[in-house]
Amino acid sequence: MHVYVHIPFCESICAYCDFYRYKTNASIQKQWFTRILEEIDALSFSSIDTLYFGGGTPSSLANDMLVRIAEKFIPYLAQSYEWTIECNPETLTQEKIRLYANLGINRISLGVQSFQLDILHALGRKHTLEDIFRCIQQCRDNGIHNISIDLMYGLPHQTLKDLQKDIDIFLKLDLPHLSIYSLQIEPNSIFGKQGVQPCDPDLEADMYERIRQDLTQTGYEQYEISSYCKEGMYSRHNLCYWDDSDFLGIGCGASGRIHGKRYDQNQSLQAYIQNGSIREYVESNPPFEAIMMSLRTAFGLDIQTWNQKYQRDFEKEYQRVLKKYAKQLKIRNGRCVCTPSGLEILNTILVEFLEDS
Ligand code: SF4
C-alpha cells in the first residue's frame, strides 16, 4: 500500500507556487487537524510500503500535530518501508529532525530550489544557504541519509552559468537524490499575476541537457524525466505514481487512485473543515495514463503486463507511433523505453499516443 498525506500549510507563499496550500493560521489549522484525524480514522490500512507527507510544508506543522498524525500510520508500516517528509530548510530545526528520526521517518525531501540567494529572494523563498547546509548535516547526524533536494531551472534571469553553480554545489553535497524541475509560470501564482515571462525554450532545453550530462557523467542515474539518483536510491513512493499502482491520497489537496480510479480532494480548506473528506472521482483513461507515466521513467512500459492488464495489444495498437518515433522509442527486453532524445519531446509523443488510444 502507498499512502500520501497532504499538509496544506506554508509559513509564506512562494512567487511561483500554484499548489494546494494556505498560509498558516493557528485556528484554521486546529480545525483542519480535527478533520484529518477523522479522515484517517475512517480508513483501513494494510501493510504500508511507502508513506509520503507532502504539502504545503509538512515541516511547518506543529510537532504535537505531526506526531498525532504520524502515530496513526506507524502500526501499519511494512518491514522495509520508505517514509518521506517534505521540508523547507527554514522550518526544519534540529529538534524536528530528531523527532522525525525518532518517529521512524527515513527520507527527507528538502525544498532547496537554488543555492543562490538572489534567486531564492526572487522566488520568495525564505531560507539561507546556511539553513540548507545545516539541515543536510543535521539529517545525517541523526541517521537520515536518504535525502533528496528539489532544485529549479529556467528561472527569470537565470543563466547557464548560474545553473552550473547549482549543479556543482549539488554534486559536492554528495546526496543520493535530486528532483529538478523547470519553472512553469502558472496564471494563479504571484509570477503569473505579475506577468513574469517564461524562460526562452532554447535556453531551457540547453539547461535540461546540461543537467542531464553533468549528473549522468558523475554517477547519477536519470531514472525519470526530472529525477536523478545514485545506486538504486529511487523515490519508491514516486515510482508508484509512474508504474500504474494505486495509492491512497489523504487530506484536502491530495489525489489518490483506488482500483485504477483516480480521485481528487479539491474542495477548499474551509469546505474541508465544514464537510470533511470528499473524494471527487475524475474521468480517466487508465491504459493511456499507464503509458504516459511509465514513459517518463528509464524503466519504460512493461508491454506484456500492460497487454494483460488492459486486454490489448500495445505494439499492434500503437504501430504508427512506434514507427514514427523509432529513434525516440525503443523496445528492449519487452519494455518500451524513451531514449534521451525521446524524453525531450515526450509531450509531443504522448499526444500521438492519445490520438491512437
Ligand atoms: S512552493 Fe512549497 S513552500 Fe512554497 S508556497 Fe508552494 S507549497 Fe508552500
Here the CATH topology of the largest domain equals TIM Barrel
- CATH architecture classification name of the largest domain: Alpha-Beta Barrel
The global form is globular
Rg, alpha carbons? 21 Å
Distance between the termini: 29 Å
Percent in strands: 15-25%
How helix-rich are the residues, as a percent range? 40-55%
Contiguous helical run count: 16
**How many domain regions?**
2
Sheet of most strands:
9 strands, mixed
Strand order of the largest sheet: 9-10-8-7-6-5-4-1-11
Q: Please count the beta strands (DSSP E, at least 2 residues each).
A: 17
CATH class category name of the largest domain: Alpha Beta
Give the bound compounds: iron/sulfur cluster
Overall pLDDT level: 96
User: Which structural class is indicated by helix and strand composition?
Assistant: alpha/beta
Protein name: Heme chaperone HemW
GO molecular function, one term: coproporphyrinogen oxidase activity
Domain Radical SAM core: 1-221
Family: Belongs to the anaerobic coproporphyrinogen-III oxidase family. HemW subfamily.
Features:
357 residues; alpha/beta; TIM Barrel; Arc Repressor Mutant, subunit A; 2 domains; 9-stranded mixed beta sheet; 3-stranded antiparallel beta sheet; binds iron/sulfur cluster
